[in-house]
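Input.
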Amino acid sequence: MNCERCTQPASVHSVSWFNTQDICLDCQNEEEAHPDIAYAKDQENKAVLGGDNNFPGVGWPGVDGRLQRANAPPKRSTASSLNVNDPSSRVEPLVFDKIKEERQADHALVDLANNMIRRYIDRECQRLGVSPEDFCQRVLPGLRGTEIDKHRDFLAKKGIPFTY
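Output.
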């Protein structure tokens, strides 16, 4: 895989806090040193806790750039507030770990659902002697109450259309 930001080959990558790019460790280190990283993490955290698991991020301003925001982030005044850079916050790493685990589990479930549907289609195409295209157009839309229907509904709830 190549880093989506610097285009260099990367055997290890992570998702940017600023946008949805898969970035290499060098780009991740640049991000962590950026003066707006706390704001980017805070906005991501707020979005995810608010139910937006597809938050596009605040945008990568570049290594030397700064984010343009109408209002500065509010000052944290209570001990119960979560702040990425506050070492006294013992809850926050657990919150971010949980968010990361939920995202990974979500991606794994989507992959599993897609693979289950594909395997079912392949098996049925062989049994019926039809092409996957014919099966998807003629048979699959009419399947209700089956395991495949549950997988298809799961993907639909996630806003992911199934395509063979």
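Confidence is low (pLDDT under 50) at residues 72-82, 88-92.
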